Amino acid sequence: MSDFLARLTFAGGKTLELDGPADITKETTEAIVNAANSSLLGGGGVDGAIHRAGGPSILQECKRIVATMKTGTLPAGRAVVTTGGRLPAKYVIHTVGPVYRGGQQHEAETLASCYRESIRIADDHGIQSLAFPSISTGAFGYPVHEAAEIAVRSVVETLPPCTHAKHVRFVLFDMATSKAYVGAAEKLSQQALATSVIFEKGRSKFRI
User: What CATH number is associated with residue 94?
Assistant: First the structure.
């Protein structure tokens, strides 16, 4: 967890780190976040990678969860927690991001909710550290730079008041996404909202 491209440090010592290109299934945070589909039955991208690495116990628990829901699906913007199975992480928090439809279908609010709800669930379960992928920027088509700003801002607003959650990481799949998130973090650290946030760069795989 110590390797990072950039880090925001909040009053009280809580941190938001950004790393990439990297593989979220190898993260040693207490929880990792899965960019799931609404059925919670696995899929492509991060979702499929987490299910493959974590083994069948994750899917079994997901099936039990959706069986309790009236629609049989997890609504976009919501989050649930399961075992991490064979993953290094003890827990997986599954959240469903919005499909991007031009930004006119409340996609920004839904995406922000994914991050807020995931952190809230982590805090409720006493989880101190969690790692996020870039939600909705793959097959769901959300523009990366817009998504990065929403993601970083949501963590900056949600993490500091938490009782248990202390450390959040963004584990980003490729170089372009990594650059977008580091840029969003640096920009936010310079705004009035983040006067109590310290921005620093770590080791670099690319020039920012």
Answer: 3.40.220.10
Domain extent for 115: 6-201
β-bridge partners, 200 = 7
The residues that are catalytic are 47
pLDDT per residue as tens digits for the range 81-111: 999 999 999 999 999 999 999 999 999 999 9
Q: How far is CA 197 from CA 10, 13, 44, 150, in A?
A: 5, 10, 35, 17
- According to DSSP, residue 94 is labeled E
> Is the pTM here over 0.90, yes or no?
yes
Question: Contact 31/92 with Cβ under 8 angstroms?
Answer: yes
Strands 129-132 and 31-36: parallel
Q: Within 13 Å, how many C-alpha atoms sit on residue 141's CB side? A: 6
Please tell me the total count of domains within the chain: 1
CA–CA separation, 22 and 69 (whole Å): 34
SS3 90: coil
